Amino acid sequence: MDKRIRDISARLREYSIGNFDNMLALSAKLDEVDAISNCINMLGEELKAITISKNYFNNIFNSVSDMVFILDTKGIIQDVNTSAEFLLKYPQGTLAGISFDSLQKGTVSCFKNILRQLKKPASPFTINDILHTNDGGIMQVSIKASYFKKESHKQLILLTVSDISFEVKAENLIIRAIIDTEEKERNRLAKDLHDGLAQQIAGINFYISTASILAKNKKQAGLLKKSSGALGEVISDIRDICFNLMPVTLMEFGLMEGIKEFCTNFLYNKIDFTIKQNKALPPLSAELAIDLYRVMQEFITNATKHGKATKIGIFFNYSKSVLKMKLTDNGIGFNEKKIRKGMGLQNARSRVKSHNGDLTIESSQIIGTCYKIIIPIHL
């Protein structure tokens, strides 16, 4: 056998293990075997260039501190960098082949939302969401998504995911401090009104009521009775204000009882309320209970004052450490973009966000308005 054939065979074996450095020498014959040898050398150069390019890409891919995911169009993870495996605490190679939604563990598909956003002209885009680590932890993340294609022209989706847990925690602490300060001021004002002003007016009303009984002039007695009645209405109004500022039932008996009392005592009592829960709620922190109560208050006030609603639904669903609260009405709806500030929606969003929750709003003249709140519960 021609030695050059053996050299070609040996060179191909070297290529198979990634060694592309040595070249085949050409003979003086420049025959067909030399032509094959020259082609083998060219193949080696091409394979070497590809390997260098691939290694260069892999070095960049795995040196990025952010998590990088490559998904197919069905949301299945095709590849990840080492940062994703490290931060999410998964063993090397175990993330590939699973769905991206399995990292979220929510009822709403994060990947479907990504696909919807990618169809819009503004892509690439950024969304915030929550991912679960392999050891059961929760990570607040910012996700940037865009389409890209491999050499095979197969369309894939590139996700760059940043851990923003620290930023979100700091922001939530600021929001929480503002809300807690507001609630303390409400509590102080309610106490001052109830124990101070209301008691003073009640005392004045007693004297006026007594004077009306003792008055010998019928006209004066009538005026005094009217004054006593007016003061009685003022006292009732102050008590209503105190109740709205700091509902005692909520603090003493929990969220559900507080909501039921509010709906029972709601102004005019002309609203048809439906209150349901799938099971008893878990113990809620005082901050979460008051925040959900305030969101409910805001919703009902807007539904009756602006939405002209006659029916309001308040629904709770608790399952798998997730609390869902849905508020619905049959009103005329509103345009969220136009009256976001006027209706206090930002305040409601801030209260929910301070508990790592999410508030979505749907509103139209056909369906009325619906608030959907999802909050993780850590017992």
CATH architecture of the largest domain: 2-Layer Sandwich
CATH topology of the largest domain: Heat Shock Protein 90
Roughly what percent helix?
Answer: 40-55%
> Radius of gyration over alpha carbons?
35 Å
Poorly predicted regions: none
- The protein's oligomeric status is single chain
Label this structure with key terms.
Beta-Lactamase; alpha+beta; single chain; 379 residues
Account of the protein in words:
The protein has 379 residues and is of the alpha+beta class. The protein folds into 4 domains: 3-62; 65-163, PAS domain (Beta-Lactamase), CATH 3.30.450.20; 165-246; 250-379, Heat Shock Protein 90 (2-Layer Sandwich), CATH 3.30.565. 49% of the residues lie in helices and 20% in strands. It has 10 helices and 10 strands. The chain has helices at residues 3-16, 32-63, 82-87, 110-118, 165-214, 218-245, 248-253, 255-264, 286-305, 345-353; strands spanning 67-71, 77-80, 125-132, 138-149, 155-163, 272-277, 311-319, 322-329, 358-364, 368-376. The protein has a 5-stranded antiparallel β-sheet. The chain has a 5-stranded mixed β-sheet with strand order 6-7-8-10-9, covered by helices on one side. A hairpin with a 5-residue loop joins β1 (67-71) and β2. The chain is rod-shaped and about 140 Å long. The N and C termini lie far apart (78 Å). The relative contact order is 0.06.
